[in-house]
Amino acid sequence: MNEYAQIAIWLTFVVALGGLLWLLSAKLSSLAHALGAMWAPLVVTAVAAFVLLFNDQGQELGVGLMNEPGFRLLWLFLALIYWALNNWHAGRLGLERLYSAEALARGVAREDVINGSKWAFWAPRIIGVCAHLLAALHLARAAATQPEFLSSRSQPYLGYLPYAAPAAILAATALLWSLDYRIVSRRSAARPYKKLADVVFWASAGVECLLAGVMVYALVSERFPAGFVWATLWIVLSAAAFLLLISHLRKNRASGVDETAALWNWTLGLAAPLPLAVIVSVYAPLAAGRAFGSLIIGVFAFGAFLAAVTFCSLAAEWLAARLKRRWPGSTPRAVVSFALVGLVALAVVTSFIRPFHRVRLCDKGGCAAAPPPLPGAAPTGAATWTALKDPANRPTVEEAAKAWYAQASAAYAPAHPGKPVPMLVIATAGGGIRAAVWTAAILQQLEAELELSKDATGGLRSLLFAVSAVSGGSVGAVAYLAAVAAHEADPQRHKAIAPASQLGQDFLAPGLLRWIFVDGPSNVLPELTRDDRGVALETGFEEATDHMLANAFLSFFPDKETAASRWRPILLLNATHQETGRRIITSNVKIERQVFQDSYDAFQILGADMRASTAAHNSARFTYVSPAGNLIAAGGGENRGYIIDGGYFENYGAATALELSREAARAINGDEKPPKVRRVVLLISSDPGLDAERARVRLRQGQVEGKMKCVLSTATPARREEAGAGNFLPFKDAAKNEKNDGEGFILSSYNELTAPLFGVMSVREAHGVRAAEELAAEICAEQPVSAGAAPANPEKLQATVSEAAKTSFEETQPWPARDDHSFFAHLAMCGEEKGDPPPAKPPLGWVLSRGTREAIGEFLKNCDNETEYSALKTALGVPR
Fold first, then answer.
1. Burial classification of residue 820, based on how many CB atoms lie within 10 Å of its CB (0-12 exposed, 13-18 middle, 19 or more buried)
2. Are strands 464-470 and 421-428 parallel, antiparallel or unpaired?
3. If we measure between CA atoms, which residue out of 93, 218, 103 comes closest to residue 163?
4. What's the CA gap between 878 and 634, in Å, rounded?
5. DSSP letter string, 191-246
6. Whole-model pTM above 0.70?
7. Can you say how many angstroms the Cα of residue 121 is from the centroid of all Cα atoms in its chain?
8. What digits encode the pLDDT tens for the residues 635-650?
9. Using one digit for the tens of pLDDT, what is the confidence trace for 76-97?
10. 111 CB contacts (<8 Å, ≥6 apart)?
């Protein structure tokens, strides 16, 4: 766009904006003033709209509402009324102040000002019913993503069925306004809009009847989730109940009556639940989370915030009136300003006298030990078990590798004589609960399938050397560890190892309660409890695993002497040190810097063991929902900074997996030819945005200089002609509703403020892809050049990657796995593929609906995962 066009557009916008401002000031000034007076409920409604409508986790809560309506719909009915009442009351309080000030300024009676306003009575009610409208829109957006509704888009009118809920709210509001205006309200005998009210009444009644018929059809046809119909019904009934309640309570109220006592009564009544909410948040967050769920807690919290604001504002007015007797200049604004300064000062002082969000350790009173396996329950069937207790006695990677090889070779070699033992190393990426469930589902399936071929492979637990996990992947890995321990300790009770089934709870709800009602106030209070929202998340993990994760992390693993006969896979849970940006790894092996470059050992920093739930959470302390953990050494020692989510450093755990597998292979193989072990690496990613040609790292075979060679999928051009001018990483341009790789349209001043944050958020995924490419390239360099040839020189990594430019993605095929060579597999959770929608759209958060949870396993059939999974089993020696 040239400079003249820019100037023309700018001038046009200035003129239009000036005209709009003139219209507002000259024609709609009373509306503008009324909206300004009701700023508090409008701000809360705007925040709620963002959370519920423009956030993946918020949308998923709507899916859950359809999947599991049950008794919670009654709680939602009540919570929406509570929020709507607070919206209405806060708006009414704002208008009361506006009209009182206007009457004083004009020297007229307050009644005259109110009667002269069009917005005095129904504007607060419309603000109130916005709570129900948002809930209905939230349900509509969630329903529109479900397969039943997506398949109906090709049929006229049925594609709009999800939006029946907000349409019903609008029609119900119009219907009840007309009823209130024509029949209920007795404020004025003059009704200048009676004809309009009659038209609105019959039109809205007709719309409601039509929508009721549509809902009955949806319920009877069984083509759509019954939960959608019932959720719509309860939300509409809640809106109607709110509007009827207000109309009934206000029908005999004259406009000039002094409202002071009524305002105080409403304020105290709406604030009454807050102390109870605090008590429940401190002592029973898990029970409350199970009973209500995140959506209902969030809806209640919006209303509770307004209840607290209105109470504080009225209290400021009351205090200012008392102070004015001694200090005439006292005003509510001065009281509020003084209170805010006092709270800031208290927050500063409190930060000096108490720690916040300290990482829970087993240093005081200790933690229980995980139950030992029964004799013969572990894969090798050895009789003795001695668990790790002291972090100082953990094995080095070399010691652990030799212990693993002792039991793995004994289990694998009889069925595969003369062949190297596959050392399975898994790197699993972050992504909240979707990553946890995806990781657990894959481990669960591998466990079941390799158990069937145990005579040939020894089973998954014999071949699995280590899992390097980040964030949600850490939660899935630790859930697998808990399921293994429970099965081996009591195989009669826990017949199958099924970690995915343990991750069905709403982990967000307890933390949400603590965040709102405990963590906020605790910033200005002495240490009354250490149970913050992070502890609530950890105890949720513990409860979901039948309290297995409440046991000490190291107690799940055998000591050095036992490991060779009672092996359990190494876990490396990757987090980030906030102050230095380095990795901080929690593991049952020593994190030594000659192996793991520039990384901290969590146990060396803290000096004590921790619960398994805490170990997982330290890797998954992602923005805001989980607080940064304060690293205070055992016994109240040094404050060593804060631990945050591992994804800030690298979201795949691939860098740690590469360093670990290198050292382990070196420790076992040394200079021996042929090698005793071969690395088999599995990468598990959960980002639906990884496209096949640029970020979904996989091994491919391509014709290079007359030979079939291993190349990386992400290093080859999509088509050979694209590499003519250079093998560049293609920039993704916008297509359909998808954004491109650039910013598109963005407010420049907004970008000035948010660029650092968004840059950090984006680079975490890019670092993960880069680390995965390095790991895959090293495995690729070990592959033979053409069938039967010797492997390439692993040191020539750059040559291996460079050869990818000599072929193209469309000319390559998946690399064929063999049971005598190393291998790299990538199981990805992808989005739309070749026009087909994904099985589900799991959000980045801590709660999944039942339908989404059940659909996650279907991703193994998408994104060429079936091919990768089959090749992985071949590489592990599973008979075909």
1. middle
2. parallel
3. 218
4. 46
5. -TTHHHHHHHHHHHHHHHHHHHHHHHHHHHH-SS-HHHHHHHHHHHHHHHHHHHHH
6. yes
7. 40
8. 877 889 999 999 999 9
9. 999 999 999 999 999 989 888 8
10. 254, 255, 256
Contact assessment for residue 138 and residue 170, using Cβ atoms and an 8 Å cutoff: no
Rounded to whole angstroms, how far apart are CA atoms 454 and 304?
Answer: 56
CA–CA gap between residue 623 and residue 653 (Å, rounded): 19
pLDDT of residue 740: 62
Instruction: Tell me the two tokens of residue 869.
Output: 């999974």
Q: What's the pLDDT tens digit per position in 705-715? A: 777 888 888 88
Neighbours of 597 (CB within 10 A): 10
What does the DSSP 8-state code read for residue 730?
Answer: P
Q: Let me know the angle formed at the C-alpha of 743 by 741 and 746, rounded to the nearest 5 degrees.
A: 160
Does residue 359 contact residue 606 with C-beta atoms inside 8 Å? yes
pLDDT band at 793 (very low <50, low <70, confident <90, very high): very low
Residue 754: pLDDT band with limits 50, 70, 90: confident
Of 653, 650, 651, 628, whose CA–CA distance to 641 is shortest? 628
Least confident of 367-381, 507-521, 822-836: 367-381
Rounded CA separation 486/494 (Å): 6
CA distance 539 to 544: 8
Count Cβ atoms below 10 Å from residue 620 Cβ, excluding itself: 32
The average pLDDT across 127-135 equals 94
Give, for 600, the enclosing helix (H) or strand (E). Answer: strand 599-601
Give the position of tokens 């106030």.
521
Q: Which residues contact 706 (CB under 8 A, 6 or more apart)?
A: none
CB 534 within 8 A of CB 617: yes
Selection from 65, 71, 77, 80 nearest residue 228 by Cα: 65
Residue type, 455: D
DSSP 8-state assignment for residue 599: E
SS (H, E, C) 402-468: HHHHHHHHHHHHHHCCCCCEEEEEEEECCCHHHHHHHHHHHHHHHHHHHHHCHHHHCCHHHHEEEEE
Check residue 788 and give its pLDDT.
41
| 631, HSE (Cβ side, Cα atoms, 13 Å) | 22
Structure tokens of 664?
């382990």
Q: Is 840 left (phi over 0), alpha (psi -120 to 50) or beta?
A: beta
Torsion of CA 165, 170, 171, 173, to 10 degrees: 120
CA distances from 269 to 96, 265, 284, 524 (A): 18, 6, 23, 25
Residue that wins the pLDDT comparison between 764 and 789: 764
Q: How far apart are CA 592 and CA 664, in angstroms?
A: 13
CA-wise closest residue to 573 among 656, 498, 634? 656
Give the SS3 label for residue 7.
helix
| 8 A C-beta contact, residue 461 and residue 444 | no
Question: Which residues contact residue 847 at a Cβ distance below 8 angstroms, ignoring those fewer than 6 apart?
Answer: 57, 60, 61, 64, 293, 294, 433, 505, 506, 507, 508, 509
More confident residue, 417 or 101: 417
List C-alpha distances in Å: 707 to 26, 557, 868.
Answer: 80, 46, 23
**Which runs of consecutive H residues, i.e. helices, occur in 581-652?**
602-606, 612-619
Of residues 725 and 356, which shows the higher confidence score? 356
Which residues 6+ apart lie within 8 Å of 77 measured at CB? 234, 235, 237, 238, 241
Question: What is the separation, in whole angstroms, between the first and last Cα of the chain?
Answer: 62
User: What interhelical angle do 39-53 and 72-106 show, nearest 10?
Assistant: 150
